[in-house]
Amino acid sequence: MNALIDFYAKHSRLIDQIGVNAILALSLSVSLQAGQLALAQAAFMGIAAYVSAILAMNAHWPLLATIAAAMLVSTAVAMLLALPVRRLRGVFLAIATIGFGEIVRVFANNLDALFHRTLTGGAEGLSGIPNDATTPVIYGSLALVAIALYLLSRTKFALAVALVREDEHAARGVGVDVGSIRMLSLALGGAIAGLGGALYAHASFFITPTDFGFARMEQILVWCVVGGVTSPLGAVLGATLLSILPEVIRFLADYREITNGIILLAVILFAPGGLASFWRGGAVRVRL
Amino acid sequence: MSLVLENIGVRYGGVDALRGVSLTVEPNRVLGLIGPNGAGKTTLVNATTGLAQLASGRIALDGNRIDGLAPHRIARTGIARTYQNIRLFGALDVHANLAAGAYARPGRLSDAEIGTLLERAGIPGADLSARAGSLPYGDQRRLEIARALASAPAVLMLDEPAAGMNPSETTRLVETIRAIAASGIAVLLIEHDMTLVRAACDSVVVLNFGEVIARGTPSEVGRDPVVVEAYLGTGAEALA
Amino acid sequence: MIAQQLLNGLFLGAVYALFAVGYTLVFGVLDILNLAHAAIFTAAAFAAYSLVAAGVPLPLAFLIAAVMAGIIGILLDRVAFAPLRARNAGTLVPLISSIGVAIIIGAILRGIYGVDERHFTLGGVDTGTTIHAGPVTFTSVEVAIFLAAIALMVGLSWILRATTLGRRIRAVAEDRIAAALLGVDLERTIAATFFIASSLGGAAGILTGLEYNSVTLDMGGPIELKGLAVIILGGMGSVTGAVIGGFILGAVETLAVAKGLSSWRDAIVFGVMFALLVLRPTGLFGKRALRAA
Question: pTM to 2 decimals?
Answer without folding.
Answer: 0.91
